[in-house]
Amino acid sequence: MKPSVFFTHSLQDPRIARILSAALAAVEPGKAVEKFLQARPLPPARRVFVLGLGKAAIAMTQTATRLVDVTRGLVITKHASPVDSDSVTVIEGGHPVPDSHSLEAGHAALDFVSALGADDLLLCLISGGGSALMTAPRVPLEDLQALTRSLLACGARIDEINTLRRHLDRVKGGGLAQATQARVISLLLSDVVGNPLEAIASGPTAPDPRGATRADAFNVLKKYGLTESIPTTILRALEEAPETPKADDPLFARVENIVIGSNALAAQAAMAQAQAGGFQAEFLGDDWQGEARETAKALCERLKTHPAIEKPLCLIAGGETTVTLRGNGKGGRNQELALAAVGELAGLENVMLVTLATDGEDGPTDAAGAVVTGETDQRARSMRLDAAQFLSRNDSYAFFSTLEDALKIGSTGTNVNDLTFLLRL
C-alpha cells in the first residue's frame, strides 16, 4: 500500500505515512502464507483441500492455490473477489453481525469438510472476522443476531463474545475439525490480543481452553446484565449444548494450528521503519484493551510524560478496545479513541496521534481510524464542532470526516487488530 494513501489534512509527513505502510506490509496475508509454505512444505496426502475463512481469506487462498496442488477450495470472506482457480468457490458472509449468507457459509463449510477422508489434508487459512462470516448456530439465526448486537452495544470484549459463540455454534470451538476425518493444518492471521488460538475466528479448528465451559458463557451474560433481555433459546442452548472439545481430545492429534501473522509483527515492522526514518521508536505492547475513551487518556498520558529527547518520538501500541454505545452516532473504536484524544492533546505543539484498524475498516464505516494533533481542538471549534459533544453521542466518523482527518485507506485485505501511533515531532 502506497504511503500517500495515509495522507489527511493533518498528516502530510511522508515519514509517518511510511511507518503506517510498513506495518501493513509486514502482515500482508499472501506473503505470510508464502513464507510459511516455502519454509515448511505440506506433508504428503492423497488430496489437498483448502478452506479460507475471514477478511484475509482471498489473498491467503490465492497464494496457497499458486503454491499447492489443490483439489478443491472454499473461501468465506467479507469482500468477495475472484480467486485464480476454477476449483475454488467463494461465499460472502455477513459482518460484524452474522446474516443469512453467514448461515449459508456455515452449512457449506460443514458439507465441505465432512466429505473428506482420513488420507486427505485440509489446509485452513483463517483470519479475523471469521466468527461472524461463518455460522452454524444451535439457535435461530435471528436470536444469535440479537445476542451479537447486545454484546457489541454493551462493550463486551471480543474474547467474551467468542466464549458465547463457541458454545452456541457447531463450527466454532473446534467444531470444524470435529466434523472432518482429514488431517488439518490451520494457518492463522491473528486479530486477537495475545493470539489465543481459540479466539481467532472463534477457533474452528482449535481446542477450547480446559477451563472454558458453558458456565463461563453464562457468566458473560450475567456480567453485562443480559440474562433477562436475550432470547430464551440462548439460555436453553447453553444448558443443553455439548461441551466444546478440549486439548486432550484425541481429534487434535491430527490438527495443527500455527499463527503466521499478528499485531506484534505489524508493530515491529512499524518500529523498524520509524527508526530508519530518524525516530526514537518504542513499543508499548500489543495488549491494550478496555473502553476506547479510557485507553485514549492512558496513551496520551504516556506521550505527554515521556522524557524530552533530541530525536522525534514514535510510540506504538497495539490491541483492541471496545465502545459502550451511549448515543446514535456513527464510528468505530479507533475513531472513538482518537476523538477522546482531542481534548487530551489540545494546545500541545508538535504532537500527533494516529489510530489504525489494520483491516482498513473501523466499525460500520469506510475509515480505518483518524488523525489528531494539538491543533485539532482549535480547528474543530473554528468550524463550530465540539469534540466532547460528538463523543457523547459516539459520532466520531462525522467529526473527523468534516475535519478531513478520517483515515480512509480502503480495505487492506489483512486483519491483525488495531495500532495506535503517538508522535512528538
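The above is record 1. Record 2 follows with the same two-line structure.
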Amino acid sequence: MDTLITLSVIVITVLIAGLAGFLFVLGSQLSRIATLLEECAEIVWKIKGDAEAITPGVERINQTGGVVAGALPLLYGMAEGIVTGATYEPEPEEAERPPALPAMGSRRSRLHEGVGYHPEPIS
C-alpha cells in the first residue's frame, strides 16, 4: 500500500510540474503576442492619423469618378461611331515585296564611342 501512495504522489508531482512548464511557455508566448499587438495598435493609430488628412481628397476623387462613370455611356457611343468608319481592309496580294530597307542605309552604333572604343569602318 505504501508503494501505491508513493507512486501516486510521484505521478501527481510530475503532472503538476508538466502543467507548470506548459503554463510558463504559454505565458511567455502570450506576453510576446501582447507586445506585438501593442506595437500594431500604435501603427494603426498612426495610419488613422494619416488617413484623416487624406479623407477630403478621397471624397473629391469619388465625386470626380462618379462624373466620369456617368459620361462612359456617351464616350462608348462616340467610340462606336469612330470604329464603324475605320474598318481595316487589307491590301490585295500582288507580287512578292522586297524586304524593307532603312531610309538612311545601315545604322551605326554609338555605344562603342561612349566607352572609348573606335572600331574600323566596314568597307
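The helical segments are 2-84, 111-114.
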